[in-house]
Design goal:
Shape: globular
Low-confidence stretches: none
Radius of gyration: 25 Å
Number of helices: 21
Mean pLDDT: 92
Number of domains: 2
Order of helices and strands: HHHHHHHHHHHHHHHHHEEEHHHEEHE
Oligomer: single chain
Length: about 500
């Protein structure tokens, strides 16, 4: 049997637009990720950070996470970290502007695998600051799209198929974790809370929260249908797969419009493009309804199609089989009663388990850090808050749009307010604010004392909710809050008694 005659079936000639969106889009998100590490990693995890990476590297091994910073000749330093980020951003831009696509088919492999390795090196020593599901998703997708090739060859169908399997794990995994988790997802009340209690609301979150109850029930029902039904349709013939991808993309755009989830939604949108054919996209602009996708199969059977890239297709088939071999545990996890959410089953962060909001927070609490230049801890005058760039604080401030950029310190504050996670980093954060640490001040939104270290510092706990329409008209407030207590009593820095 001449297997080479069947090789054209591995070419997805109708997915050139999808490939371009995937290559440039994923590269853009890698640029954002490296930029975020350049700006935030040294203050959070650097040599004098809140949780110093060198100390973490000393007490762990490569089995916990491979990283170039563990190599003897490239030990961690803040300078090396920034060089790594600059290299990653430069490679990302080469893909975004199309330079890489001008080369032979294999050119995408070293470029994306270098970006994958450099970012894996950061994530592996990033501790809880880099413990988010979208870190693993970016690593996985970056590895996969390396095998999409350049303009020199047709997009490989098997790689596009595996990207659809990735979307399936993201969406179906999230749907199953919701059904197995909080009862609010099963009684259709989850969205009554979500827009108000999500980690980092944006400008439209308050508007979405104030919709009527039937709207929120429809949101919850729609989430279940889209996440539990439509991912299966990605594996159907065209144009069914394209229609399913469009539904998933629209649902993700709704999440983009009403929240800040770093690059999770944008990356899911990009990966969903793996199911969008050129024919379907042309039909959206008046190009005629596409066929059912069997034309190429018939042409191959009739010997009317040949391929000029047998070696390339065999290489992508090997990559596909390798990734399939890693898919067994994530597949079992999807249907397990003990389903794991946002889990990596290997240290390379390839073929992971995903999911979000298996447990719904119903009350929003915020930790407000305040300082004063007064030496009297009993005085209530002079206390001013340190505002963060993204998380709620000032009740008059509208929630900003920051995604796909990831404000890691702001997210850590949300988890801490829930009572989860290690708190040692928070005590170190307070100490650095007391000391007037400039690197930490750059991570904050506003410093009320313009760089002058406070004499005393404290942390109060508040319950936050959106101001009603009437309250906003009367007071101008975006948020309404009430104090719940003192988490950290006043303690001093320079000049304290």
């Amino acid at each position: 049997m001449d297997f080479s005659a069947w090789l054209p079936l591995l070419e997805a000639t109708d997915y050139t637009i999808a490939r371009e969106v995937l290559l440039r889009g994923v590269a853009t998100l890698y640029f954002v990720a490296f930029l975020g590490a350049f700006n935030q990693f040294p203050a959070l995890l650097g040599e004098r950070g809140l949780s110093p990476a060198p100390e973490f590297i000393e007490r762990t091994s490569a089995r916990n996470g491979p990283s170039l910073f563990r190599w003897r000749f490239t030990p961690y330093s803040d300078r090396l970290l920034r060089i790594v980020c600059l290299i990653g951003m430069a490679l990302s831009l080469c893909v975004v502007v199309g330079i890489v696509q001008l080369g032979p088919a294999w050119t995408t492999i070293p470029v994306f695998l270098i970006m994958w390795w450099l970012y894996l090196s950061i994530v592996s020593i990033g501790q809880y600051y880099y413990g988010f599901g979208w870190e693993s998703l970016l690593l996985e997708v970056g590895f996969i799209v390396a095998f999409l090739g350049t303009w020199d060859v047709a997009p490989p169908f098997l790689i596009l198929l595996f990207l659809r399997w990735t979307v399936f794990r993201v969406e179906f995994g999230a749907g199953m974790i919701k059904m197995r988790g909080d009862t609010s997802w099963r009684d259709f009340t989850a969205m009554n809370y979500h827009h108000q209690t999500q980690p980092m609301p944006n400008l439209l979150s308050r508007w979405a929260h104030q919709k009527p109850q039937w709207w929120h029930k429809a949101e919850t029902l729609g989430s279940h249908v889209i996440q539990l039904v439509f991912p299966w349709l990605l594996f159907f013939p065209q144009p069914i797969a394209s229609i399913a991808a469009c539904v998933i993309i629209l649902s993700q755009l709704a999440l983009v419009a009403t929240g800040n989830y770093a690059w999770l939604n944008w990356l899911t949108i990009l990966v969903a493009f793996s199911a969008l054919s050129d024919s379907f996209l042309r039909s959206l602009v008046g190009g005629g309804w596409p066929g059912w996708g069997w034309e190429q199969v018939v042409a191959v059977l009739n010997g009317q199609v040949t391929t000029q890239s047998s070696a390339w297709l065999l290489l992508t088939a090997v990559a596909f089989l390798f990734l399939c071999a890693l898919s067994w545990r994530p597949l079992l996890n999807l249907f397990s009663s003990r389903q794991r959410m946002n889990a990596s089953f290997n240290r390379w962060h390839l073929v992971n388990a995903y999911g979000a909001f298996g447990s719904m927070t119903q009350v929003r609490r915020e930790l407000i850090i305040e300082g004063t230049l007064s030496t009297d801890p009993s005085s209530e005058t002079g206390w001013q808050a340190y505002e963060f760039k993204g998380k709620p604080g000032d009740v008059y401030r509208r929630a900003p749009q920051v995604a796909p950029y990831h404000l890691r310190l702001d997210w850590m504050m949300w988890f801490l307010a829930l009572g989860s996670g290690e708190a040692l980093w928070f005590r170190r954060l307070l100490d650095k604010i007391v000391d007037g640490d400039p690197a930490i001040r750059r991570l904050l939104g506003t410093d009320p004392f313009n760089g002058q270290p406070p004499v005393l510092i404290r942390v109060r706990v508040f319950e936050y909710r959106y101001a009603t329409a009437q309250e906003r008209r009367e007071t101008g407030q975006w948020w309404w809050r009430k104090e719940l207590g003192i988490l950290v009593p006043p303690y001093g820095g320079q000049g304290a008694a």
